[in-house]
């Protein structure tokens, strides 16, 4: 088929798409790395800076607080200034703030560095995913966006490897090298992103048609032009108010609700897996094995989901993910005193089945909103979902102590089943649709 008659969403995957997936996935990788590396350095860092329990908690939470503000900021900047410009803010902040941790001498200074790193992570989500989805062919849109979730776990795993290696070799100042190590990833991310073009869809939305046409020819070949991108400019506001006024309020509620319900139990389980497993009578080697197995099953669940997303469809995958993972949590609540194999099997089932909802966190927000407000919607979803995750994680130790493990599992199951209700009532099907049709309110 000639380029002059072919929609760019139907072209084969090429080297540019593969590189852009890698570049955009770097943001999720750094997120996993930055949020995990602090735990490795915490013990030595606390002693060196004489941190009180208050400052230990604040520094541990600082990056999550930054992600909350960064999501909002990144969404607004990406839709107003463009994808290409904002695409380089995160890597620069990763480099500068990571290196600054080599010289911090107080808890407030370290808090500021970690907060800005979280800010950079929050900025990454809307810009990296919006730029990627606006170039990807429709056939590969779901699987490629879903794969970014796997990058988070890869970053977390890499943090444990690098962090423990540096801690064993770095002496009394090892914690500084551990925290500063994220600068190397930021530098790599900055270098590989050089030369990334602006999104033609964003250019078109701003009336910059000549530039949009030039980008299309540069990426897809001289036989392609704006005629191969059937999307017209729009004047919709990129603000939250503009989002609501233009009929996308219901979709924003859906995205925020399902995103929050899918990560609240995950963050809680992931952060307190040993404590939760101990409460379920798994001790010693069983608890250690269980923590590792659950982490691996989270990854496997996301991998399976990314492979099945075009087979099952978005709506069906989300409903089944919440249904079966919620059932696993419910059974854990019913049998908190079950034998080791039963507990591990149910926890493993939860980790495996929740993968569908996990990978859709970056797929649905990017498909359900038009170019003019896409990044703002992703940013809002990122920020608001982190509130629930932070609150849920904070409450887990209190819940275990006050109401016990059984009722804690009931609460986690209830959160998951709220996600199921939201999916059943509001989740649309966007599989096989063009990006323009997926974002239209009519389907």
TrEMBL record:
Stretches that traverse the bilayer: 20-42, 54-78, 85-103, 109-133, 145-162, 174-192, 252-274, 286-305, 317-335, 341-364, 376-396, 408-427
Annotated signal peptide: none
Gene Ontology CC entries for this record: membrane
Primary localization: membrane
Pfam families: Sugar_tr
UniProt key word Transmembrane helix: yes
Record GO terms (molecular function): transmembrane transporter activity
Keywords: Membrane, Transmembrane, Transmembrane helix, Transport
Domain Major facilitator superfamily (MFS) profile intervals: 20-431
Localization per Swiss-Prot or TrEMBL: Membrane
Topological type in the membrane: Multi-pass membrane protein
Protein family per UniProt: Belongs to the major facilitator superfamily. Sugar transporter (TC 2.A.1.1) family.
Protein name: MFS transporter
Organism: Pseudomonas eucalypticola
